[in-house]
TrEMBL record:
Matching InterPro entries: ArsR-like_HTH, AsnC-type_HTH_dom, Dimeric_a/b-barrel, Tscrpt_reg_AsnC-like, Tscrpt_reg_AsnC/Lrp_C, WH-like_DNA-bd_sf, WH_DNA-bd_sf
GO cellular component, one term: cytosol
Membrane-spanning parts: none
Source organism phylogeny: Bacteria, Pseudomonadati, Pseudomonadota, Gammaproteobacteria, Methylococcales
Origin species: Methylomagnum ishizawai
Full protein name: Lrp/AsnC family transcriptional regulator, leucine-responsive regulatory protein
Classification via SUPFAM superfamilies: Dimeric alpha+beta barrel, Winged helix' DNA-binding domain
Residues in HTH asnC-type domain copies: 3-64
Length: 155
């Protein structure tokens, strides 16, 4: 889908402030409210905008430990991967699960927990108990250097 400058401005603005009302959005990008709303609805219908969510402060919620976990699987079969993915998706501490290539790991997880004790519980009693998990390597995040959710827009 080709994006014009108004579409790009809408997407950039909504990525920065998903709660902006249509009038303010229209004013910011230089359109009247009706065409602006039609464009937003079209971007939603086309699947470019897939949802809106609040960004929470993990530390204020007591979630101060973030880890990146590499998971190696014992078998590389669609059934084994599907089983792992279904189980890992059910763990709320897993923020992201990526199937990767070029490493010893098959998956990279980003998890957040309260502390090291909670991490140990998560790893030993939930993640490593998923059938097929053959190896685990963890890196702990010291601090976030870049933390953005906004995607770069083409054009």
């Amino acid at each position: 889908m080709a994006l014009d400058r108004y579409d790009r401005m809408i997407l950039e603005t909504l990525q920065a402030d998903g709660r902006i009302n249509n009038q303010d959005l229209a004013d910011r990008i230089g359109l009247s409210p009706s065409p602006c709303l039609r464009r937003v609805r079209a971007l939603e219908a086309d699947g470019l905008i897939v949802g809106y969510r609040a960004h929470l402060d993990a530390k204020k919620l007591g979630l101060s430990l973030m880890a990146l976990i590499g998971i190696a699987m014992d078998q590389h079969t669609p059934e084994r991967f599907a089983h792992f993915e279904a189980n890992i998706a059910a763990i709320p501490e897993v923020l992201e699960c990526l199937l990767i290539a070029g490493q010893r790991a098959d998956y990279q997880l980003k998890v957040v927990v309260e502390d090291m004790e909670a991490y140990q519980e998560l790893l030993l009693h939930r993640i490593t108990r998923i059938a097929g998990v053959a190896g685990v390597h963890t890196s702990f995040v010291l601090r976030r250097v870049v933390d953005r959710a906004a995607l770069p827009l083409p054009g």
